[in-house]
C-alpha cells in the first residue's frame, strides 16, 4: 500500500509518500514541500497547489491520502489558508477516487510513539527508526507529512475493520427490522 | 458585466448571479443554494460543490466571481468547512480564468447601504430596490450571495482604477530607478 501524507498549508505544504505492507517495514519514497508565494492571489495559490497534487498522484499513484485534520483552534493568522489548502487536498483525492482520511495531530503522535502528547523530536526519532533513515526526513517541513502517512498506513487496517463491523451491524439491524415488520404484519 | 456572487458554505452555499452595466440597473438572473449533506465525507461535499460551480459557470458564463472573505473570527464550529468551500470557489474561478474577488461582509454592507454596520433587513431592502424585486431574493440563503454580486458590480470599476494606478506607480518607480542607476553609472 502506498500512502501520500499531506501537512496542508498555502505557504508551505508538506508532502510525504511511503510504501509498506503488513509485516514489512515501510519505505520512504518522497519527502517534499510545495510552496506558493504569499503575494500571489489565494485562487492562484490554490490552483498551483492543485496542479502539484495532481502531478504527485500521476507520478506516484498512491492508494490512499492522509491529510492533517484542521481545527479552528490552530494558529488564527494562518487557519483560513490552511483550511483552504486542506480542502483542495480532500477535493483532489476524492476526485481521483482515492481513500482520503483525515488524522488529528494527536492521532499521528499516538500512532507513531504510543503517546498522543509526544513532542516533535520524539515523533521525528520514531519516524527515522520506522523508515530506517539516518536523519529526519528533509526538507523539515515534510516531516509531519511523512508521519501522517505512517500513521495512516498503521491505522488503515483498523479503520477498515471498523467500517466492516459497521456494515455488518447495519445489515443485522436491517434483518432484525425486517423480521419485526413481518411479525407486525402477521399480527395485523 | 455578469457577476456570480457566492456566500460560501458546505451545508448551504448561497449563489447569486446578476447582470448590469454602468448607467443601467442590474438584473437578477439567479438566486440558488447548493446543499451537501452533513453526513457525507468532506471530500465528497467539496467535489459536489465543485461540480455545481463548474455547471453554473458553463450555463451562465459570468465575467467575475465575488466570494465572501472568510475570517477566523467567524462561527468556530463551521469555520473550517466555510474556509474549505471558499477555497473551492477561488480555485474553480481562477482555473476558469475569471476575475475572482473577495469582499468582507462590512464591505458588502457599505457598498449596498452606505453603512458597513447595516443589519440583514436593511441590506435585503436595498438589494430589493436595486434589483427591482417585489420580495427579497429566495431562497433566503442566497440573499447574501446576491448582495455580494451587487457589491462587486459596484466596486469593480473602483478596484480596476486602483489596480491601474498601482501599475502606473510601479512603472513610474521603475523609470525613476532606471534613471538613478544610469546617474550612478555615470558617476562611477
From TrEMBL, chains A, B:
List of residues binding Mg(2+) 1: 7, 141
HAMAP family, sorted: RuvC (MF_00034)
Subunit and interaction comment: Homodimer which binds Holliday junction (HJ) DNA. The HJ becomes 2-fold symmetrical on binding to RuvC with unstacked arms; it has a different conformation from HJ DNA in complex with RuvA. In the full resolvosome a probable DNA-RuvA(4)-RuvB(12)-RuvC(2) complex forms which resolves the HJ.
Residues reported in the UniProt entry to bind Mg(2+) 2: 68
Primary localisation category: cytoplasm
Obligatory cofactor(s): Mg(2+)
Record field: catalytic activity: Endonucleolytic cleavage at a junction such as a reciprocal single-stranded crossover between two homologous DNA duplexes (Holliday junction)
Free-text remark on how the cofactor is bound: Binds 2 Mg(2+) ion per subunit.
CDD domains reported for this sequence: RuvC
One Pfam family here: RuvC
Taxonomic lineage from the root: Bacteria, Bacillati, Actinomycetota, Actinomycetes, Propionibacteriales
Active site: 7, 68, 141
A GO molecular-function descriptor: crossover junction DNA endonuclease activity
Protein name: Crossover junction endodeoxyribonuclease RuvC
The keyword Transport appears for this protein: no
EC category: hydrolase
Function as written in the Swiss-Prot or TrEMBL entry: The RuvA-RuvB-RuvC complex processes Holliday junction (HJ) DNA during genetic recombination and DNA repair. Endonuclease that resolves HJ intermediates. Cleaves cruciform DNA by making single-stranded nicks across the HJ at symmetrical positions within the homologous arms, yielding a 5'-phosphate and a 3'-hydroxyl group; requires a central core of homology in the junction. The consensus cleavage sequence is 5'-(A/T)TT(C/G)-3'. Cleavage occurs on the 3'-side of the TT dinucleotide at the point of strand exchange.
Keywords: Cytoplasm, DNA damage, DNA recombination, DNA repair, DNA-binding, Endonuclease, Hydrolase, Magnesium, Metal-binding, Nuclease
Annotated compartments: Cytoplasm
GO BP of this protein: DNA recombination; DNA repair
Annotated InterPro entries: RNaseH-like_sf, RNaseH_sf, X-over_junc_endoDNase_Mg_BS, X-over_junc_endoDNase_RuvC
Family statement: Belongs to the RuvC family.
Record-listed E.C. numbers: 3.1.21.10
Record's keyword annotation contains NAD: no
